[in-house]
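Narrative summary of target 7.
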Amino acid sequence: MTGEPYIPRNITVHLGPPGSNAQNVTTTFPEYIKNVASSEIYPTWPENALRANIYAQISYALNRYYTEWYRSQGFDYDITNSTAYDQSYVHGRDIFDNINTIVDEIFNSYVRRQGYVEPYFTQYCNGTTVTCDGLSQWGTVTLAEQGMTPYEILQHFYGENIDIVRGAPVRTGTPSYPGFPLRLGDSRNEVQTIQIQLNRISRNYPNIPKINPTDGNFDQSTENAVRVFQETFDLPVDGIVGQNTWYRIAYIYTAVKRLSELDSEGISLSEASRQYPGLLRPGDTGIGVNLLQYYLAVISTYYDAVPPVQVTGTFDQQTTDAVIAFQKTYGLTPDGLVGRNTWNDLERAYNGILESGGFEGGVALYPGEVLQQGSMGEYVTLLQRYLNLIAGTYPSIPQVPETGLFGAQTREAVMAFQREFGLPVNGRVNVITWDAIASLYSDLSTGQNKQPGQNPGTTISQNSGQ
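Modeled conformation, tokenized:
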């Protein structure tokens, strides 16, 4: 469970109920979804019904994959083909032509609740012999015949507060466990992950002490919390997070947040925004690549050996060259791939710059986490200050009070900025929106001639989505 979701290139299916002595098969994710759709629904149904069902099937599988539901219990597969637990998969079956076409188009799209990260647990049933609180497969047919779109059908069953994420990046899967134990004195991104998870678990198990701050430093309070967790869940009590402790934490965290339930508590963007996004390689796209490029762009201004990059959201040759240069500078294997070691060193380098002042060209660097409604602190105050100066030149952007609290007015101002400059309009400030706002603020505050309708002047491209 690391960072924002992606589409795995492959998924491993257990051909039987959980824990049974059945075969595992590994197939590509699109082929898995084609098989499930051909096994679960009828190709003669209206296309909008087919699409609604396939979105649900994709999201269900991604929820199992993202939460590591089975792997966190010690199994060596991602999902089963038992309909008592998961969705039908018939190994070797034929695929219907129209389902093949639809899945090729939408396999990298999934459902999530608004404001949350993880793929939604889109429970469903056939709606005739079996009914449930989620989607009714036969019910989708009736709604499609009434003229509803796939999104409207999904909203009918799962509520108004859902989104369909489209164009999610496709990557080779990486287990969340870092591959080595975490212990007192370690300072890593993965430490922050377990700190966040243990603090949430402690709400249900108050005997587990809170960790403060959750800054990625494995300090004494972290070790104490790990020891109590291990004692509570009958693990060897050594205060070290090895593989068994790591996955038991992940499993209990999923359980207390009900991430594999319709009434999931959800993982907020701020919880996921700085977690290791998984292996990044040339050709990848998405928010993980955006953040990688921003780190490199900032680092390049302090390290002459690292060439500057543009934040495009696509892992291109320019990004590869910068990664290799960074790896050489830090004594890493210069392979151009961003694995855990490279990512952790990138974060350390960026955080070092941030802690030394965090300003470049008179504006603050990106704080490293998404700012959204409900966020508080000095970076929200800076955001409001930047927006207010920009609003003096761009009348479409409203002034906001500089309170340090990201409320509805700040969200409206952010959305107005995003509309003005062609960014995705969602009211959240990730690395791309922050850089666009900070860059324009810098230009305006230093007296550069900016007129409404012009793009913010910056060395980092603003054409990427968030």
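The CA atoms of residues 115 and 335 lie 36 Å apart.
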